[in-house]
Every structure is written in structure tokens, then in C-alpha cells.
Amino acid sequence: MLDHTDMSILHELSKNSRIKMKELGEKVHLTGQAAATRVAKLEDSGVIEGYTIKVNNSKLGYLIHAWITIYTKSTYHQPYLSFVETQENYVLNNYKISGDGCYLLECKFPSNEILDQFLIDLNKHVNYKLSIVINKL
């Protein structure tokens, strides 16, 4: 079970995973060594699975951020899943969901033309509802 200090460490690492252990320790009221020991335990227990970077997709030319709710046409989902695997340039995340739809795709596209072609190809496997992100608040 995680205590308040572990939760504080996770919070600080989620803001900046490159923080120096000494600075992390100061933020959570531990020594740098004690913070490093706690982080190692969180890694060993699987609470921390890895570290990553946050990419600004707009600066990479991906100006369209879309959420696509997927409605499968049958109970056989493999053709859709295989299609999604081939679209790694555009698909950020593919979530299996409950409620409205079967899957929720988070995607990025450099243009409306490429989005349109993606949707044409997607519609060969499933039906969908498209939502475009206007602004992140």
C-alpha cells in the first residue's frame, strides 16, 4: 500500500520524470538517497512501469487531434485491430471501452485529406463517430 510520501513522489515524477533525486527529496521532505530508495521500490513493485516523454504533435506537423468512437459491425474484431496496428503514424491510443461504442481511438493527423482517407479505410472494418479536439484546457 502506498503512503502519502509515495503518492507525492509519483506526483512529482509525473510532472518531471527527469528530476534529480536530491530535488525530488526536497519536494517530498526526504533526503535524495531516501527518495532514490523509494523510487527504486516503486519501480521494483511495478507501480512505476517506465518513463516517457511528452511530445508536442502540433510542432511535428500533426495539427488535427481526433477521438474516434468505434462501433464494430460484427463480433469478430480482428480485421479492425489489424488495421489499427498498421496505422501507428496516426493512432496514439486504442482503448477497449464499455458504454457508447466498443473502442475509442485517439489519433493525430497532419491534414484533413489524410484524416479523410484514414476514415474511408477505417469504414471498411467498422462504423465510427468522429470528434475533433478544438482546444486543450
TrEMBL record:
GO annotation, cellular component aspect: cytosol
Entries under Pfam families matching the protein: AsnC_trans_reg, HTH_24
GO BP: response to amino acid
Domain HTH asnC-type, first and last residues per copy: 2-63
Keywords: DNA-binding, Transcription, Transcription regulation
InterPro entries in alphabetical order: AsnC-type_HTH_dom (IPR000485), Dimeric_a/b-barrel (IPR011008), Tscrpt_reg_AsnC-like (IPR019888), Tscrpt_reg_AsnC/Lrp_C (IPR019887), WH-like_DNA-bd_sf (IPR036388), WH_DNA-bd_sf (IPR036390)
PROSITE patterns, per the entry: HTH_ASNC_2
A single MF term (Gene Ontology): sequence-specific DNA binding
PANTHER family: HTH-TYPE TRANSCRIPTIONAL REGULATOR LRPB, LEUCINE-RESPONSIVE REGULATORY PROTEIN
Annotated protein name in UniProt: Transcriptional regulator
Gene source species: Bacillus gobiensis
